[in-house]
Amino acid sequence: MQRFEAKLAIIDGNPYVSVPPEILEDLFVHAQRRKSPIPIQGRINKVPYRQTLVRFRGAWRLYVNMKMLKDSPRRVGECIQVELKYDPHDRSPFFHPKLKKGLASNQEAKAIFESLPPSRQAEIVRYIAQLKTEDSVERNVVRAVNFLLGKGRFVGRDHP
Fold it and tell me: What crossing angle do the helices spanning 118-129 and 97-104 adopt, rounded to 10°?
């Protein structure tokens, strides 16, 4: 676990800290890559978190949300204690078998789904995975397939 102190900054309304270059280099070695995002875990002011380290506007940033640091947007300028390390655990959302089956049964929808950016794919997969009843899952798989085919809205979005 790497430790450092950093001043909380803000960009586009999002609080973040910059990670020192020597710690970044260690993360790159453990992650075996230098491409964003890099999954990490650690503690901020002794409170555990799981997050991703991302490169934005040419700089690597650890965004600090309110789960990680209470009232983080109001604390810009404060120095915080950060601990982090590479997190090798799979963070892929649960891909519900009924969604897999729905996409497999409609090759056009499947091709559109696979052409979406990974973040949009994950949004659809997570939405279906969080549903509580099998009826909801079945209804929403149909809605997701129709959405991909340009028929209606899904998760508050118009056709991709």
Answer: 120
Residue ranges with strand state E in the chain: 2-7, 9-11, 14-18, 38-44, 47-56, 59-63, 79-86
Distance from C-alpha of 136 to C-alpha of 130, rounded to nearest angstrom: 10
3-state secondary structure of 78: coil
What's the pLDDT tens digit per position in 7-65? 999 999 999 999 999 999 999 999 999 998 999 999 999 999 999 999 999 999 999 99
Separation in Å, CA 136 to CA 26, 141, 159: 44, 8, 21
Question: 152 to each of 72, 121, 144, 160, how far by Cα in Å?
Answer: 37, 17, 9, 11
Q: Residue 113 to residues 25, 34, 50, 126, 145: CA-CA distances in angstroms?
A: 35, 27, 27, 14, 9
Q: Which amino acid type is present at position 23?
A: I
Exposed / middle / buried, residue 35 (Cβ in 10 Å: 0-12, 13-18, 19+):
exposed
Rounded Cα distance between 90 and 104, Å, is 24
Q: What is the pTM of this model?
A: 0.64
Task: Determine the residue type at 136.
Answer: S
Dihedral (C-alpha) 24, 2, 19, 16: value to the nearest 10 degrees?
140
